[in-house]
Amino acid sequence: xxxxxxxxxxxxxxxxxxxxxxxxxxxxxxxxxxxxxxxxxxxxxxxxxxxxxxxxxxxxxxxxxxxxxxxxxxxxxxxxxxxxxxxxxxxxxxxxxxxxxxxxxxxxxxxxxxxxxxxxxxxxxxxxxxxxxxxxxxxxxxxxxxxxxxxxxxxxxxxxxxxxxxxxxxxxxxxxxxxxxxxxxxxxxxxxxxxxxxxxxxxxx
Length: 205
Description:
Blueprint: H1 2-22, H2 29-36, H3 40-46, H4 50-79, H5 83-99, H6 109-115, H7 122-147, H8 158-179, H9 184-200
Helix pairs in contact: 1-2, 4-5, 4-7, 5-9, 6-7, 7-8, 8-9
């Protein structure tokens, strides 16, 4: 059982690297099979088709990203009981994490699948939607906790603000990759942090 699990994880690792480098469309089952040093039947034992592979990659991405954000925010809450300060610390830790990747963040499976959604069946599109809505709920909950203590200084919807977090990160990854500047995403997260601070911190009297 462990060997089968290791093979499945190896297939997913190889597929993810290829997909993030050139997209789902340009990544063939044949090249994954060759890189994993398995037979085609070995591939199909774990993944009946490309839809199953894409779905598994997205589900794993959701889990890994969830653990990442949980770890960051758990650490931030250890440093401050105040929800606003914890959020600001968390965004700073996220920016530092992104900066610690010398080659830049490899990219996002969810974004890649979204750009090529015509390739997939409904189950893959629904998995993608779950990922995005999960991020929305995660960040909205964070902002709701802040708004319960600090009034907003502008007419901003909390759902839109939550979506802005994902937009900044994903947009930063795209710009970073397009012009080959790995630290752009971290700087964008710090700009988001400044906006959140301005949005909630009371003005001095």
